[in-house]
Amino acid sequence: MLTLEQIQAAREMIKGDIHRTPVMTSAKLSEACGNHVFLKAEHLQKTGSFKIRGATNKVKHAVKDGATWVTAASSGNHGQAVAYIAHQLGIPATIVVPKDANRSKVAAIEAYGGRVEKCGYTSGERIPRAKALAEEKAGVFIPPYDDPLIMAGQGTIGLEILEQVENVDLVVVPIGGGGLISGILTAIKETKPSVKVIGVEPELAKDTYLSLKNGEITSIGQTSTIADGLRTSQPGELTFPIVQKYIDDLVLVSEEEIRQAMLFVMERMKQIIEPSSAVTLAAAMFGHIQATDQNIVTVISGGNVDVSQLHDMMF
Prior knowledge:
- By secondary structure, this protein is of the alpha/beta class.
- It has helices at 4-14, 27-33, 51-64, 77-89, 103-111, 123-136, 148-164, 179-189, 207-214, 239-246, 255-269, 275-285, 310-314, and strands spanning 23-25, 36-41, 70-73, 93-97, 115-118, 140-142, 170-174, 196-202, 249-253, 295-300.
- The chain has 13 helices and ten strands.
- α1 (4-14) packs across α7 (148-164) and α3 (51-64) packs across α7 (148-164).
- The model has no long low-confidence stretch (mean pLDDT 94).
């Protein structure tokens, strides 16, 4: 199982390649939520999302071990991150994306030098294809979430939160495959276990919610949630036990709540965030978190939105 020491080692490995992202506040948001709400702004991270942390840790280790080519399976953000860091390290990358992948994310992958291949609609389809490509050409597959080095990289966010927000009571994290929350859970619970960590999923993509309820990994198949970065069909084999061990609660938000949270951030804070990021704010804004007058950090996981589709997405 992932350890605090692995996360601390990841921090040293990636510190020269990523941003220490800021924490933002909004008096209006805090007032609306009845708590002191902070936004951990990973949408301002390199490549526009938290994914660069885990990808950098994994790819740098792979190159250190002799890798000359990498592949990844991604709905967009992980692919961007892998393409970016591979290019920085001077090796090629092929990214397998779903057939309905966000156009701006695909364009960004290509701009970072990555080759794009489309395959299926779920992680259960694109991950085997990316692995097969790696095997065919003696490359290294870079998992989107179910890998200790990936989880450790994402966990560095937890370390930063504890340093940046004094007397934090609660951290709210979006859940896709579980790499982000498993890393943050480990960092926080092994450093300051009194801090609560709550996960959030869309109602239309509640694979981790069902898995926790059933006591075993449960697949939901294809989903059409607006939160495209959270469209995983099931939690990871490595991430799920960490979530089971440490998570304090998991709540679900509706598609309309996600839209309203995005709109609030755009109108009030002048920030563009992804639907996958907005789930944490939606949970805080619409009464899914039982807390009053507490210091709450919502993890804003990314900001890679296709601006041409923004109107249709929001209204």
